[in-house]
Design brief:
Strand order of the largest sheet: 1-2-4-5-6-3
Radius of gyration: 19 Å
Number of helices: 6
Strand content: 25-35%
Structural class: alpha+beta
Order of helices and strands: HEEHHHHEEEEH
Distance between the termini: 62 Å
Number of strands: 6
């Protein structure tokens, strides 16, 4: 029985010959618009016209999905996280997860793509002070399709700079089986609409 490991091995063998990733050069790359809303709950304003006031505590949004291919898992690991459980299929089969898994940082990067494409304002976003409580709950394997569930946890106007507010978002990343693979709490600063644009 082929569990997919032969395909992964072949892909990685190609990636190891000649240039750094010739075996994966033709793999499809993620482009804007690849993912979409997956829930009935949507923002009342598009991401190009979204301000602090549009992030209402309690609202939940779901976006996705992105499939994690073995080629992309190997490419990312070779470049940024060259641990054998991420970039060596043969060694990974003997490891603690009995097979190749994506780097947690790869999962974070895919999460960020969905988060930026759909959730973070393109006109009012300022910066992020950081994230809290990042957890890799379950391994992500080749073929897993990931979606993002974002819950607005809190939205507070800044005391020192009243033209902006801080939004705290609970992030969950789910695989195709509905299992949580990543959680974290993200913070973002957004400009306020009525003070910046004179509307509202």
């Amino acid at each position: 029985m082929n569990d997919g490991s032969e395909t992964v091995d072949a892909a990685h063998a190609g990636a190891r010959t000649g240039s750094r990733h010739p075996g994966t050069a033709s793999a499809p790359r993620l482009t804007a618009g690849t993912t979409k809303p997956l829930s009935d709950t949507v923002f009342t304003t598009p991401v190009e016209d979204r301000y602090f006031e549009d992030y209402v505590p309690g609202a939940v949004y779901v976006y996705g999905s992105i499939t994690m291919t073995s080629e992309d898992i190997l490419r990312f690991a070779d470049e940024f996280d060259p641990q054998s459980i991420h970039n060596d299929p043969q060694a990974a089969r003997q490891g603690p997860f009995s097979g190749l898994i994506a780097s947690g940082w790869h999962t974070c990067s895919v999460t960020m793509r969905m988060y930026v494409d759909h959730y973070v304002s393109k006109v009012a976003g300022l910066a992020s002070p950081g994230i809290d409580e990042l957890r890799w709950v379950q391994p992500v394997r080749p073929g897993d399709s990931l979606s993002l569930r974002a819950t607005v946890k809190d939205a507070r106007v800044s005391r020192s700079k009243p033209d902006r507010g801080l939004v705290t978002t609970g992030i969950e990343v789910l695989n195709q089986h509905g299992q949580t693979v990543l959680t974290m709490s993200a913070m973002n600063l957004f400009l306020r609409r009525r003070l910046i644009s004179g509307r509202g």
